[in-house]
TrEMBL record:
This is Beta-phosphoglucomutase. One of its GO terms (molecular function) is magnesium ion binding. SUPFAM superfamilies: HAD-like. Substrate binds at residues 10-12, 26, 45-50, 53, 77, 115-119, 146.
Amino acid sequence: MSKIKGVIFDLDGVIVDTAKFHFLAWKKLANDLGFDFTELQNEELKGVSRVRSLEKILEWGNTSLSEDEFIKKMAVKNDNYLSYITNLTSKDILPGVSRIIDFLTEENIPISLGSASKNARPILKKTGLIEKFHAIVDGNDVSKAKPDPEVFLIAAEKIGVAKENCLVFEDSVAGVQAANIAGMMSIGIGEKDVLHEADHVFSSFEEIEIDFIKKLLTT
Ligand code: BG6
Ligand code: MG
């Protein structure tokens, strides 16, 4: 493995616990259409764009919508999601995240965001983290959903770090696959069984020792 010179963070489910709000809002949408989906199916929605998520949900419910209805449903889902995150603050940063970000900042390691979400900037502002990022690449900047590596390749380019020197933190299967396809080191945050394709998996940032990160920066 090459020395790590830049770090890319996914947002939802990595920096903030917003993954549960995406789940709630999609679940409500499916229920309103008369069906449901499981938490296991929800793993397939993590990291995936808004459009692709709705396409998958409709497939699960054997339902189709006209183009107009499709757009309306996405807007309703997003409004619901935004209503869940109105009061988001720095208190909602997941445990252990700030410690790692601060360490990387002290070590002068550039930090980039690589998220599928179009709501990334307001979330980073609400949590007071926006200034910590040297680059932000989100759902407004990409045309291909994870597992396509586009978002991470742009994120690496924006901080001027070669892909083999990048480390990606991800909570989704699609995101881990995207990092692997990009040729970057992947660290999964979540369950080992789900994220087994990642180079390393931790159940949360609290489990990551600073020494572990230090080694990645020096060896
Ligand atoms: C990803 C989330 O980060 O962003 C997905 O894991 C979400 O659940 C996707 O659907 C798109 O987010 P948004 O905020 O643009 O609807
Ligand atoms: Mg995520």
